[in-house]
Amino acid sequence: MTKRFEADYDVAVCGGGAAGVAAAIGAAKAGAKVCLVEKYGFLGGAATTSQVYAYCGLFQQGVEPKRAVAGVAAEVTDELKTHGLDGEAYRSETTGNWIVLLDGEVLKFALDNLVRRYGIDVKLHTRVASVARTAERLEAVTLAGMGGRTRVTAEAFVDASGDAKLAMLAGVPFQIGDGEGKLQALTMPIRIGGIDRDLKIDRAALQAAIARYNGKGAYPIQRTDGGIILRLPLSHDMWWMTVDIPLSNLSSESFTAAEMEARARANDYVAMLKRELPGFEGAYLVATGPQIGVRETRHPAARYEMTGEDVVLGRCRDDGIARAAWPIELHGEAGKPSYTSIGGAGYCHVPYDSIRAKGLDNLWYGGRVIGADPQAYGSIRVMGTAFATGQAAGVAAADHVDAGHLTDLGQIQSKLREQGALI
C-alpha cells in the first residue's frame, strides 16, 4: 500500500471479537497499517468473554460439513490446531448443526499470535470514548485506556464492536432490537467440572431432573429438553447452555440484574445436578465467563438491510462479499430458540452495502452490526459469519485508502479471494 495520507493509521478497528480480528488481519494483509481496539484484556469476543465455546456458521447445514467461511477464519482454526485443538467440524447432537469446538485460553493465545504475526497495533484495555467527524467522513477517535485518553487519526474505520459503539458515537442512526425495542434473550453458558470424562450425559434423566426441579426450584428452567450440552475439548468439562435471561432494555441496571440472576441460576442448577444425577456428585461450577452472552443490542443504519427472505431463499448476488450459512436462530423468548434453515445452495450472500455505514464514506461494519432485519439478523450474528463480514470490512477499508478514497467492489472481491475468503 502506498502511503498517501498523514493519519496515524490507515485503518482503525473497534472491537476484538471474531469480526474485529478478521477485519484487522484482512486490512493488514491488504497492506494497511492497522490499529485494533478492544475493551477487555484479551481478544476473542463472545468466545472468550462469554464462554461461547463453539464457532457457528463456518459450515453449512447438511449430512456432511461443507465450508462456508474460510480466509481469516481458516487461519484461526489452523492456529488452534497447532495448540492442541481439533479445529474441525463437529456436529451438535442437540441441533444437528456443524460447529467448531473451542477452548478459551487456547483461543486467546492463538489470536495473540495471529495479530502479532501481521504487525497489527493492538490496544487492549481500551475503549472508544468519542469521535471526530467532518461531513461524511470520520477523522479520528479518542481512546480511553489505562494511561488516559489519546487521539488517534485514521483514513478508514471498522465498527466490529457488536454494540455499534463507533457508529453510535459518530452519529449514525440506530435502532434497538427489533425496532420496537424488543431484544433477544441473553444466555450465560456455564462450564461444569468434577465429572468423569467418560460419563455420558443421560438426556432423559436430565430432563426428568429438570421437571422435578421446575416443580419446586427457585429458577424454573425454560429449556425443558435439557438445553445444549457439549463435552469440551482438552478438559472434557461439561458446557451447558440453559441459563437464559430476558433483557428489557440496554441500561446498566438491566444488565446488572441479568448478570446477578444468571449467576444465581448457574449455581442453583449445578447444585440440582449434584443432587439429582448419578455421576455428578463431585460436580462444581468452573466458570461463568467475564460477562453474560449478549445476542443483540443496537443496529446501526446500513446502506442495505438484509431481509429474512434473502436468507430463507439463499439469495446470491453479484455484489456479495461473504456467505451466511447459519440457520435463522431466534431467541425472542428466553429458553425457546427457533431455527429456520437457509434455502438455495445452503447459504446466502451478504451484500457489500450491508457492511457500509449509511451516511459515512469511510466506516464499515463487521459482525452483528451489519445491516439486517430481525429475521436475517438471526443468521448473520454468529461468530463464523462475523469472521467473513469482518474480513470483508477490513479489506474494503484498506482498499478505500489504497485507492485514494474511492471504492471498487470488483477489486475488493478480488482481494478477498486472494486472501482465501469464500464468496
Written description of the protein model:
- The mean pLDDT is 96.
- The chain has helices at residues 18-29, 46-49, 72-81, 104-117, 165-169, 203-216, 252-276, 308-312, 374-380, 383-402, 409-418, and strands at 9-14, 34-37, 54-56, 90-91, 98-101, 121-123, 127-134, 137-145, 148-159, 174-176, 186-187, 190-193, 228-231, 238-241, 244-245, 284-287, 298-300, 320-324, 328-330, 338-340, 348-351, 363-365.
- Helix content is 30%, strand content 22%.
- The protein has eleven helices and 22 strands.
- The protein is globular, with a radius of gyration of 21 Å.
- Strands 1, 2, 6, 7, 8, 9 and 22 form a seven-stranded mixed sheet that branches.
- The longest helix is centred in the middle third of the chain and has 25 residues, at 252-276.
- The protein has 423 residues and is of the alpha+beta class.
- The protein has two domains: 9-180 and 297-418, FAD/NAD(P)-binding domain (3-Layer(bba) Sandwich), CATH 3.50.50.60; 186-287, no CATH class.
- Keywords: 4Fe-4S, Iron, Iron-sulfur, Metal-binding, Oxidoreductase.
Salient structural properties:
11 helices; 30% helix; 423 residues; 2 domains; seven-stranded mixed beta sheet; alpha+beta
Layout of secondary structure:
Blueprint: E1 9-14, H1 18-29, E2 34-37, H2 46-49, E3 54-56, H3 72-81, E4 90-91, E5 98-101, H4 104-117, E6 121-123, E7 127-134, E8 137-145, E9 148-159, H5 165-169, E10 174-176, E11 186-187, E12 190-193, H6 203-216, E13 228-231, E14 238-241, E15 244-245, H7 252-276, E16 284-287, E17 298-300, H8 308-312, E18 320-324, E19 328-330, E20 338-340, E21 348-351, E22 363-365, H9 374-380, H10 383-402, H11 409-418
Parallel strand pairs: 1-2, 1-9, 2-6, 9-22
Antiparallel strand pairs: 3-5, 4-5, 7-8, 8-9, 10-17, 11-15, 12-14, 12-16, 13-14, 18-21, 19-20
